[in-house]
Specification:
With about 250 residues, the protein is α/β, with parallel strands linked by helices. The chain is built from ten helices and six strands.
Length: about 250
């Protein structure tokens, strides 16, 4: 009881300190540590962590909305996650995405417009269908908050695919080389149309990007949090925003 009261007071204090601060327009998150969290909590099957992690996304999106953050990108699974991990574990993860993530985002009350980024062809048919349905049913006119789900994703493959797409548009190789620019490559990325992330948060204590948004995060501020994703608390999120607000962004200068 005392701990929860102290926690609530601290969270309100953090939130008050952010009033008037420059906050990120776009936050990207690597939701890492689901299985390790399950082991830490004493679950016999660490795959249970995937369900807790999927359900926790709903809560974190609520914090983003409360802070006025209108663009969020989450790294759900890489191409290697889908291709190389145990088939039973991958199947469990895909079911969580279908039953929890895609289904909840389709609710009429959800403010999030869904976008997909990655090699959807590596996903099971049912998962691909559920995500595409969420994307289609949340598409609409007018202002909205935007959630990009990076799944079957690899940053290097994304850049290769973008260059390949750009070259296929050109009438000749000479024309392609003459008109090749960074902006034209960016226009062919999976995330085309979305602003680059201002802040990238990775949970679990790992301090690497793991191929996530390699092009888009070139000038992003990075924040590494030592807690596992299902245990990522509102105060952890607010600390990340506080860290961002205290930095002077130099955009590579």
């Amino acid at each position: 009881m005392v701990r929860s009261v102290v926690y609530a007071v601290y969270a309100r204090r953090l939130l008050a300190r952010l009033a008037g601060a420059e906050l990120p327009r776009h936050v990207a998150m690597v939701m890492d540590g689901n299985r390790r969290w399950a082991r830490q909590m004493g679950f016999g099957d660490p795959r249970v962590g995937h369900r807790y992690g999927a359900e926790h996304l709903d809560e974190v999106l609520g914090w983003c909305a409360e802070a006025g953050i209108r663009h969020v990108t989450v790294f759900v699974a890489s191409v290697d996650n889908v291709r190389k991990r145990d088939a039973t574990e991958v199947g469990n993860l895909m079911r969580m995405i279908e039953d929890v993530v895609a289904e909840r985002l389709r609710r009429p009350a959800s403010p999030w417009q869904v976008h997909l980024a990655g090699r959807l062809d590596v996903l099971p048919d049912s998962t691909r269908h559920a995500l595409k349905l969420a994307e289609e049913e949340t598409r609409g006119p007018g202002p909205a908050s935007h959630l990009t789900i990076a799944i079957g994703y690899d940053g290097r493959e994304e850049i290769v695919d973008a260059v390949r797409s750009l070259l296929s548009e050109a009438g000749s190789l000479d024309e392609a080389l003459r008109t090749l620019t960074a902006d034209r490559i960016a226009a062919h990325l999976y995330t085309s149309g979305s602003p680059d992330p201002d802040l990238v948060i990775r949970t679990s204590g790992e301090r690497r990007m793991s191929g996530f948004l390699l092009w888009q995060a070139a000038y992003s501020e990075l924040y590494f949090c030592d807690v596992y994703w299902p245990g990522f608390r509102k105060v952890d999120f607010l600390r990340a925003l506080r860290s961002y607000a205290a930095r002077h962004r130099r955009f590579g200068a």
